[in-house]
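Run: sequence + nicotinamide-adenine-dinucleotide -> complex structure.
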Amino acid sequence: MVESAEQLVTRLRRTFESGRTRDLDWRRRQLRGLSQLLADNEEQILAALAEDLGKPRFEAWAGDIAASIGEADHLRKHLGGWAKDTSARLPLPFRPGRASVRHEPRGVVLVVAPWNYPVYLLATPLAAALAAGNAVVCKPSELAPATSALITKLAADYLDSDAIAFVEGGVEETTALLEQRFDHILYTGNGTVGRVVAHAAAKHLTPVTLELGGKSPAIVDKDANLKQAASRIAFAKWSNAGQTCIAVDHVWVHHDVHDELVERLRTELVERYGADPRASADFGRIVNERHTARIKGLLDGGGYDEVAVGGDVDIEGTYVAPTIVTGVKPDAALMGEEIFGPVLPVLAFDDISEPIAEINRGDHPLALYVFSKHNADRVLDGTTSGGACVNDTMMQVFPPSLPFGGVGESGYGAYHGKWGFETFSHRRAIYRRPGFFVEPALAKAPYTALKERIA
Ligand code: NAD
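>> structure
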């Protein structure tokens, strides 16, 4: 008999209430199991990622497998220290006494993952939830079906299935899950569904972390190291065929260095993928025909001078060539939504205040990249974004000491490293009085005029 969403959550809640998941050794065993699952089955996982997304081997290994193992291992090493009660200072009126903060698991939590890094964006929130001692329901994306099926099957051999469950499926299955009461939900994906998740969670007053997307800009100033900028932008735009939440969506470049940057980007493309990127084993595909057609629609929408590089789209082959579009106007179709594909619009500016103003006119991006010797802080101080890099791209995501999360339309809440442990923990304030302490008569009714004067 297939277990309903309600039965599943009830079963996991029973496990949670037994106290099993609070045990630090249990948490470490699950995290080791997760790393082991990914390491032992590397070839199968790489094959599934190739089937779902045409992911090049190296990108799949680095972005999905190695990054997930790194996060799980980091959490395993540190959770013992983080889970200890921390003492808090007490002002005089509260003494004698002791105060502490205890990190308690929230309970039964839900992780809803997208398709673009279908292992990493499932495994890393799962790892954080486990480090904090929760029971977890994982909902992989139906748009990466081979990976979803494989991870669900393997989980049974590596993880405690009384406390960690995988639910495959699409909108119907997610909707059924969202009707249940969870103690925290971490959702990664687009903002429209993010709102659906937040709405469903509100019914149960469930706290939510929303990891969304947006149009993340790169700004290249006239004093930037252009070789470095082109290389880092190429990495962030064309890895995973641009289907990365923190990819460079578009580039603002100073007029004086516009042509040189475009030429350097062209060179980067040839060096990376050869003269025919379609034939390169290192260039990925779009997840499905619907998204391929959507990207073609953005290109066909005009509002720019020329396609300087690429431009080929094969909807049936889910192929979009790495593409550079120049002379892009702020009202072009390409600027109307997150591109989430390998098309790079280039916009020129005369003064750094122009991109700053444009960025502030739009939604707060998930990431912002600035290449400049003198104006980096001006850009950082004049804007906001989930995270940012100066003279680099995407590196804000990897150090476990940095929080990963959005702001405004790019989401709220954060995780990675200790930030993930915090997200999936409740901070319980505990105050202890010594047993011998006698309450001062001052705080006790009846509150006489004399007591008021003394107080
Ligand atoms: P997706 O279509 O796989 O959806 C994500 C999850 O939502 C899936 O598990 C899916 O089953 C579920 N879902 C879809 N429709 C639903 C509905 N109506 N009700 C309930 N659940 C539903 O992924 P996507 O949204 O196409 O992902 C791409 C977007 O995610 C981009 O905007 C990207 O920037 C963003 N993203 C953000 C991050 C981040 O960490 N901030 C990471 C990756 C992607």
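>> summary
The chain has two domains: 5-212+410-431, 217-397. The chain has a mean pLDDT of 96.
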